[in-house]
Input
Amino acid sequence: MIERAVASLESGQLQRAIPKTTRRAARRSRHLHTGFWQHGASALELSSFWPFTAGEAANDATPTKSSAAEVLEPKLVATSFLLDFLYPNDTQSFLHRVLAPRPRANRLRPLRRRQYSAQHMASFTRSEPSILCTTRFEASTRLTSDAPAERQPMESTKSAAIETERAVASVPAQETPKAAEVKKSDKPNDIILSQFSTRVLNTSPVVDDAWSRYQKASREDQIAQRPGLIVSFSKTDEFVECARAATLFREIPQGQWTDELLSAAIRSLAVCGKFDAALTKFQEGIRHNFTGGMQYIVASAFATRKWQELFRIWFKYSDFMNQHADKNIPFDHLPSIPKVDTLFAAFEKHIKYEGLAKIRTDNKGLYSRTRFDKLRHLMIRSVLAKPCQPSRAASILSHYNKTAYFQLYIESVLQSSNNKKQSKSALRQLGKMYCEYRQLPDAKFTPEILRGVFNIYYPTDPSGLALLYQDWIRSDEGLDAWAYEHFLTFYADSGDTTAVRDLWQRYITAFPDAAKEPRGYYSLMDAYAQSGDVTGAKQELAIMKKAGIGPDAVIANALLKCYVRAGNDEDAKACFATILEQHGPNTRSFEHMMELHSANGDLEQTLALFSRVQAALLRPSGIMATSLIVAYLHNGLMQEAEQICREMARRGITSTEIWNRLIQAYATAGKLDKCFQLLPAMQGNNLAWDHDTCLAVLTAQGQAKQTAAAHRLLRSAVADNLLPITADHFAIVMKSAVASNQAPLVDILTTEMERASIEPNFATHLARFEAGFVRAPTADRTARLAKELVQYMRKLVHNTDAAPGVRKGAPYATAMRDVSELNRELRDVGEALKLLMDKREMALAEELLTLYAKMRPLSQQGEHMPTDVLTVIMGAYLADGRYERVLQVWSAILKDVRRRTENRSTTAIFPAYAYHLSGPFAHVAQVYRAAGDGKRLLAYTEAALEAGFKFTRDTWNTVICCLAELGHWEAAMNWCETLLMPRWRGWSPRRLPLGERHELKNPRVLVASHAAVLSLQREWLRLRKLAAWSAGVNAKLQRIETQYPLLHHAFTTVDVADLPETWAASAGKDGTAGEKRTSLNKAIIEDMLGSMGLEDLLAMRLKLGAQLNKENERIGRKWAKKWGQVYVPPKGKRRRF
Output
């Protein structure tokens, strides 16, 4: 009676009969005796004995509990042991012998208090670990076959049951019980179980209730209920239930055995950790032609690494199955064994070291290689179906190289990825395995595999998608509607209008209804928009209208995007107004227009559009926020852009691209520390790195010449396979290696890129050529690298014009026509031209320029080359002394600059084009210096500054030197003082801090060079000579000292060591150049003292020597006073001066 009361109090299940207690009383109940709560009676389930209250009917549905209550409700384990602390110590031995006999190995150990709690009983009842528990499998698989099985306490079992709400499997696994009804069956055990529905909604019946009813039932009813209870109890993972099932099975005579009952008994014994008993029971069943439980024997032996028992029972089972071919046992549960891949590795290791000969000797008469291969095949399928780790799967697949294994692993990974159970790294590894699978002769390309691999490849692996398209064509079913639509999207994203047109014709042939709706033309219009082909887009619209299909909002936005990519601002504005009038405000239209204005750096228009978005009650998207950030960055407002980025993230409007743009801007500005400060903030907004983030970090490290750190980051990214690493990442590190005089590192990076199966692009070819040119300009290898660079351009041009199926590299590779991708791929053409010209490879340089003209976006063909390419051409003309050709190119640039850079609403240039003239203007300044035309150079400089253009550091220093030599000294002084001298640090400055040195890598940071300051000093020295003879010149010098203090300080502190050779050489007596003086001060002193007499020099020497001794004594006394010492004059012979 006491035990029943204890169980009800602890479980809190008497609230129906007893009024609810207060929280204070509930807290006091927790402080009862320790043995009271640890006793097994606390887990007794007495619900079957409860009378219903007056207000509760017997068939009422149980009240629904909250999820928290369900989790916190204890899973009770019913036992029949007494409250030990209520009994005298003398009765302990008697109670132990009667109720809980101990194993022989533990009988000599002294007894402890509370020997009869449920926790303690589990410690000696379970002699071996549970093998088949699905919830606690990991702890049991740590035991080896050599080590003795340790006893598992019941505490972990109860704690795990309390932490997780786990339904007891009282019905078959394929049946899903509903919330308010229990499926009825003709079996007596199902009727008994259904009478005791759980008090927690949406869970299976409580087996403890059924056990209580079974104990109170008559003998006949127990016999009828026993088989059903055994099956139901065996489906759980609880020790007590499985022990009950094993006990009940012993009461069933052998004549009433079935495969199902034997399987349930063996599983129960395995869960209780009694593998030997389960094996004995299975062998007994084999003798009576029963095979039930074989799957659990195999799983138990495999999990505990009992290889000898596994081989013996497997060969016996195989011999039995040869005689009974009608029996079949599924082994589908083997993949659920934890760490099955590690166990299989141990299985293979055992076979390798033991050898098949020993296995054949141990199993004479039963062994055959066919049976052994079946067992290994079963293990391999279990490992691959889990699915296991990609590294282990790769080793298995490469060793056996069977199509069925490849297909099984690919399907299992794809199925688990649909449930979000696979990492990105594992999926990218699967892409590599698919490349091996597709090369097998009997590979099967099912729609499920092809669709899953497409989702892995898209959109970061175009080469893989091209191979997948080829496989889809070879498949038995061919392209379906899903494949057509997704591959049309893939080719349209790259702007490959030729491939899209070809695939679209096949699509409408297979599905004619697709051409009757605007949706069927989305991919075509998107392809024209990506490539900026306005003419093709208009022709497609005309075809649609002719077919009677009116363009919808998506088609209109595609046309707007086409105008934006082509750079037609006026047409884009007109199209935007038409869309607002016909279709109303929509997010996509505003995104395109904000992208147009932000690309120009038009902050005013971008903010105006953003205000219109809010006025139209449209939620700002991530693309809009990105455009806003880009507009601020083009205007040099990086801090303001960062504040907006953080505020947008706080309001839930953020994306990885926004932070990538901000990090890239700080990287270009040389602020490496700021880049790394933004990465934690980015992760704090639940945004993971992508390939552009890694690209920005590598750019920052490369610009700071931290090549080793960039190389480590790149290698770790390739090894981890968490990001899609491309050739652009390798190109950045290669370029940094060349800039930091580590050209041999480029060859190492090339090898790593080939090992990672990454195709080189134009930037990597250029980096290899530049590294070879730096190391050996005239070597044959350098010439070969130059030819490979041009050959890559030939392949790009060929694929652009060729139809799908006949392209180089991959037959169905995409032709690069997207405007942004083309600009990224060909951004280094100017540098490549310069290197080819420096190597005097004029034929290759001319061919490269011709190929580049063909590869340019369609909207830019027929126009002038970009400014960086024209700058290289002007530099080549300048080096050859062809000044008139330089001026011709300059005039062509000036004619086109207004159309490209002018903001017609303000007649000023867009901030994005502020440095558009910086490179060419440096060559123009040198041409005008050679021609002696200072007035025109000054006029061009003033006009460029008035229009809003800016110059880089090197261009400004060149212009100032040229103006100073051409007689426009005061204008040069003014610009140098206001623009360049604020960051001037003297002639021999101390080493700058690391952050400032990184910022000076940015060419837009203005600092005066020594040559520019010295060129201005020449005129200042000339005026100094004339100042003694002219009051006007003297007044001019005083005005210069006041107006240009920084330059005046630089002029007066110059030393001869800072002068160039032509300034520092003094003429000899014979008129030849003399030796270079080491210091201008020493030279002045020598000239001054040369005219003095000997007596005066000696007197000066004595006077200066006395002053020096006095100063040394003062310093010595001061030092001694500071450190608490006594000053002692230096000893020795006193020198006389």
Summary: The chain has a mean pLDDT of 79. The longest helix spans residues 1094-1122.
